[in-house]
Amino acid sequence: MNDMPERSGEIRHRALRLLMALIPGLAHLRQGHTHAGLSLLGLALSMITVSIFANERIQATFTAGRLDYWVALLTLAVTLGLTWVVSGVSSRHRLDARVGGSQWAIAWLGFKQNRVAMLGLYLMIALYLATLLGPFLTGYEPSVIGDIAATRHLPPSVEHLMGTDKFGRDVFTRVLYGARISLSIGFIAVTISITLGTAIGAVSGYFGGAVDTVLMRLVDTLISFPRLVLLITVIALFEPSLLIVIVVLGFTLWPSTARIVRGEVLSLREREFILAARALGLNSPRIILRHIVPNVLGPVIVAATLGLGNIILIEAGLSYLGFSVPLPTPTWGNIINDGREAMLQAWWVTTFPGLAIVITVVAFNLVGDGLRDALDPRLRT
Amino acid sequence: MKRPWPRPDGDAGSALIEVRDLTKHFPIRSGVFGRTVGQIRAVDGVSFQVRRGETLALVGESGSGKTTAALSLLRLMEPTAGVVTFDGQNALTLDRPGLKRLRRKAQIIFQDPFASLNPRLTVGTMLREILHVHGLARGAAAEARVGELLALVGLHAADAMRYPHQFSGGQRQRIGIARALAVEPEFIIADEPVSALDVSVQAQVLNLLADLQRNLHLTYLFITHDLSVVRQIADRVAVMYLGRVVETGRCESLFESPRHPYTRALLAAVPVPEVRRTRSRVLLSGDIASPANPPPGCPFHPRCPHPDKDEICRTAVPGLRDVGGAGQAACHKA
Question: Which of A193, A340, B207, B233 would you call most buried, defined as having the most Cβ atoms within 10 angstroms of its Cβ?
Fold first, then answer.
């Protein structure tokens, strides 16, 4: 008789445990980690919402045989799975960065306290998710032209969230698909330019002397060209295509990173731990890769996020001028270019992709600023 | 815990390191084409020897070329001229594999415990890397060796998982010592290892260095400007002024009867912890001369308080001469 309340307590406890295992973020909320809890819960809910509303298209994946559908499906499944895994793992082992944590853990703590930067990070994640999930978020095709007379220049409404353009295509869909081009160009070109810039800057700064002189004069030469003119010239020589644009952007933007890295390495090289590494007989590649590059990564990451926004802007500029990915593939730049003539009658065609560019660049810059503060040990207490 | 590593048994007291006329000049460049317009004579013909198992203190004020001499000795900087014989081998003409072998025999401990450790690596990672590069231990053996090294310098094996910024200045200096010991060297250059530390911590680190020397039969070249530290740890002393050695001798005799006027002035500047004892102070006027433009003759003559200072001092460079005992001084009047 006596153990009745105990048993019901036990049942309630078990039910709660089950619920916490089922709903991501709940455990965090119960532990008082509102921020993490709400983010996980929100992410899971939005993924579930997408899968309910895009039910038909998800099923179409298996018959359509299109790569982007598969990518979208994979993204949906992985994101949903990740919320569960992350929720389960992190609610049990919450790492305490103050004891035994690395410098990166401390930087993350600093970054988390910066609300504006976190907003930027959320925007960034949302943008990439939206891009990957593209086909499930809209019911239209980006380049299919229907009955132009009936659908031309429709203002924003529930069916067409951002209205339609002069060919009656849904602007929301085109902005969504355009984001793919802009974001992937940004991502890949930044990866190329950061890798190249870090390697060249580190070698130049570490070895100094003639190596440094030759590499830095090359950097000076590249920087002294007006960037847009250089890009247009190179692209005009080839047939404009996604590959050419990525390669050209990636291989023309590394000099600024190389300069930043070289400057850092010059001061790092004289630090005693580098002297110690040499005294211990470590060879130059090892010293550069293990002792120098990790210590310049802070400024490099900041340069990368800021560069990402920059590249997206440049790409938009190039496609506005018609020197980027050819039509009818939508990019933010060429959607704006398309809507230019009808800007007064149909403001939505230019405004929404413009807003998308602004939001993306601002998000990346916020994250970049936040990282700069978080990674700077002088600003740390 | 203490593992005295195997070493070739040289006679104690024989010279492990012999430095002759070590010179390091830095070119002063100017103009668009980087023409060399002068030389900074940071180290200008330094000679000394370090004997097996002893501690030689290299003393001098800032800018006298102590650190440059040490870095040139280890070829962390290429000296302009001179001969460095390490264990009978010329260290300045070593090829790459030879240099790597030298790195296992001669190590260095730095002054600034905050700049001398890579902030991105845990202590364990850092030590394991050294063991790996020299093929000393790997896997579980490396793990055990890291624990041993940390115990050797008075830290815990668990400290291997921590990052440098989680240690105090004194602890970091211990880590720096453990790093130098990782390759089981015979010879360690300690470049002002305690001058960045609190006085109480200084004593601990000095004691640690002395213990290690006894247990592991180490030879030290101890660079410092702090004469009270010299007295505590050194067997012999070499005093440097403006890139030259001006006096060498056994520690006690040099402290008792310094022969070079510069050494006298240095010793007179050491504060004495006895209130009643009054001493004659030797005040030096002016600053150390620029090594880009050293004075002719004896480099010390513009500041020399010696009463017999004369024309010879102004024109002739004095060499090191025996001055009784085991000491040598570079002074015309000593």
Answer: A193
